[in-house]
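Subject: MMPL family transporter structure
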Amino acid sequence: MTDVNRPPGERIGGWTRLVTARPRLSLLIALLFTALAVVAGSGVADRLGSGGWEDPAAESSYATKALEKRFPASQPNLILLVDSGGRTVDDPAVAAEARALAKKLSDEQAVTGVTSYWATGAPSLRARDRGEAIIAARIVGDESAAGKTLERIAPHYRGAHGPVEVSVGGMVAVRHELQSTIQEDLLRAEMIALPITLVLLVMVFGSAVAALLPLGVGIIAILGTDAVLRGLTEFTDVSVFAQNLTTALGLGLAIDYALFIVRRFREELAQGAEKLPAVATTLRTAGRTVLFSALTVAASLAAMLVFPQYFLRSFAYAGIAVVLIAATAALVVLPAALILLGDRVNALDLTRLLRRGRPARKGEPGAGWARLARLVMRRAPLFALATVAGLVVLGLPFLRVEFGTADDRQLPSSAESHVVQQHIREGFPGGPGGALEVLAEGDTGTKALADYSAEVSALPQVLRVDGPAGRFADGRRVAEPGPAEAARLAGGSADITVLPKGEAVDAASQDLVRTIRAQESPFTTSVTGTAAVLVDTKDSIGDRLPWAVGIIVAVTLLLVFLLTGSVLIPLQAVLLNALSLTAMFGAVVWVFQDGHLSGPLSFTTSGDIETTLPVLMFCVAFGLSMDYGVFLLSRIKEEYDRTGDHQAAVEFGLRRTGGLITAAALILAVVMVGIGTSRVTNTKMLGLGIALAVLMDAMVVRGLLVPAVMKLTGRTTWWAPGPLRRLHTRFGLSEGESAPAGSRTDAGTGTDAASGSEADRQCEEDGLSGDGETGRDRVSTGRR
């Protein structure tokens, strides 16, 4: 049959002709792309950074860089914790060995600013029980160079040296262990998720051939994104944490998109369509929805580009790349594969043995979802109120969230750098690690520095102040400057250390940062330190968060309007998606901040949540929620356009997509839980939190709240003013080609009914019960 003589629903569009004209060539190009991606992306993990939580334009970032250059001893990133082995650190043999280690360290290439308790006598460098003391230094260079230096020198210091035992810590060691731990955990997560995912896909599709297609799309997306990240490292910093998102979204979204496309193609074959028209109908319907979904997810992730922290920007780079590559593979590679496979897409039915001897299931596919939809809509006010109330209650713990910074407690408790920092936190005086550093520039005369130090030391939150003018406490000098203090003054700049009384990042320390910054002085001051970085990060996130949320909301409203032509549905989508995230945010605080389940989940709580992580989780989870929302709304819209029956359209949409969305969400949750097995707390929080959000959205929001709310809003749901209706008519997108409202009848013609029964039986045999589209729906695609 020529294309001109085909029914409208079977005509072959230009995109279908393009991607199916040379299917073997298309697959060969995809194979070459994948091979090149493997080469281009090789070694990407070694080029990724493990920091990126700070705003590079903040005052604390400026002060840190300036102090690193002028006073490297003030910014140590390498700590040697020296254990005296039952003696005291003042024992002559211990002191001699420690001084020898410090001398050896100072001679190392790329190491500067070496200081120690035995050189300065500073109480903050000696444990209260006098059993341990610190040698501190700074490894120069960027994260990559510092990590390589650490790998080179650490084995020469770690372990027994005469009477002492040395452990290696400090921020450079923490970041190095984070990077290596994440790489190991990512490999383990893939080994966990891939086989389980394959089993679930076989259960959904029945066919092993069909089940392998989504995995192929996922592999292309993951390897392609690794190559993109490798290229970006030539121009900007990229976080190692982004690889976790690459794996999760690469598998999750590829499976979502391939599920939708392969399912629709198999339905078309079950209806008796030839291969090429079946692909054409699939791309015209499911393909449009996949494209639409990809745009919404990419827009949500792109919002993170407004933040200056490269930790967040890295997830935008990885997320946008993996979404677009997954969608491209689904819309280009899959059609070519389906053309070549044809009916063989149903080959290797591994579930046939399980069905052998069992009576065929009776009833219409998706009947359970239809019954649920009718039940919810009969009691719409009750279900809407109960569901909203439940989600709000689950989110209440987030109201007491405390924000902090990422530190060594991200690592497992057995990690060496974590052990070192824990010893310092618990056994050393004066809040080591929580000190504030003040860079003074300008008129840094001795008297001016003394007056300023005395004034700062008189603040109620301050334990003491150390600087070029000596040591100060309670507004007066308690120790005269010595050689170590004199080294804090150079070239019109001075380094002043302020030790707070409280914890490193508690509210009092953050208030102290603001107080010091507001204090007048005869010279210019810039404050850095853990609390200062946290204050600047919170300010930076707070300033840009409205822009990020605004971008996500605006793009969502636009895209959902183009999909539905309604003014109310986009508003519902935004509000219901936000509600679907409440359980995730509440669980994050209850579990990871408060420490519940810390034993079973094997993590150390720091009593706060890293500041950037909720932003990341919001953008990712919101985008994934829209992914499922688009699938459901596209089918509801299609049915409403055909029949004009609002309630029947909602029931139809849930019946046709309920099983598909649940299966896709379950598979994505498995992938995210695999990521959540990481030994790094932030990665564990990301994986488990998003898994919970995805399941809540698919099973609670899509199954209960959406039909209840749409029943309450009734036909008003579809209202739009005249100009917007005309805009949607011209530019809108929808799945299927609408027939006039009311053209569909439940019985249809005899031919339709027969075709529908045959298709339903085929869908049941394929394991797609609840998601299939029967022959009675052929009007919606124009094939009848």
